[in-house]
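It is time I had a proper look at our fold encoding. Can you supply me with one protein entry, sequence and fold together? It will help me judge whether the discrete encoding reads sensibly. Leave the record below and I will have a look:
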Amino acid sequence: MFHAIYIYIYIYIYIYCFLLIGLLCDLLWSDPEKEINGWGENDRGVSFTFGQDVVHNFLRKHELDLICRAHQVVEDGYEFFAKRQLVTLFSAPNYCGEFDNAGAMMSVDETLMCSFQVTKK
């Protein structure tokens, strides 16, 4: 039991706290926002929101076509943003019994065509 306390403290300090600040935090918790340009405050109380311009600039700078993200409930299991340059996936239907959402999985074939399998609400 005594050793478990040290493990808990290590996890809390070096892993959990790391998730509340910095790059990893922003990768996990930043959310797209239709009503803004640039960056804004996030209602979740952690990280930021970003506009379509941020998505477009990031993709252009890194020569990419699509951002696929998760970690945000969306009603139909997946949702496009920024002229279909970003897609949010959420795979847990009826999340925590509190949401009436579908879940979705995305497949990408050898020609980079994306397709979605949706599990009903």
